[in-house]
Amino acid sequence: MCDICEKHRKNVKWYLDPDNYKDELVLNNKARMKVIEDITGYRLEYYVYNTSRLSKFFPKLGPLKYLLKPLVNKKAYELHGGQVVPLEDALQIVEIAHNHVLIPCYCRYLFGGETELTCL
User: Fold this and answer.
1) 47, burial (CB in 10 Å: exposed 0-12, middle 13-18, buried 19+)
2) Residue 40 is part of which domain span?
3) Phi, psi (5° rounding) for residue 12?
4) What pLDDT digit, counting tens, does each position of 76-120 carry?
5) Structural domain count, the chain
6) C-alpha angle 25-30-35 in degrees, rounded to nearest 5
7) Residue 83 falls within a domain, yes or no?
């Protein structure tokens, strides 16, 4: 679990907490609304395109890549748009949440695969 998830959980995995799926969390909070717009808008496409382009260049940097890693990790926090979960947890999320959206799997795309609508 990443440190952001660790920080925001309440004795359960954050994504299994029903309180995290209340409409009021988004409707009454402009910052959360912006995150939703960013994830479903152009920024995710932009992030995937640039990340996949840079990932091909990164191995060629040699020792310099170790200096750039902290900067890349910092930027990843700003652009992070997903959470990988086990199948059992995904089934629980479907039971807890509503208004589901199926989006392309950008992890697969990033690593050269096809863009498939497999991420919830």
Assistant:
1) buried
2) 13-119
3) -140, 165
4) 666 556 677 889 998 998 898 877 777 777 666 666 667 777 776
5) 1
6) 80
7) yes
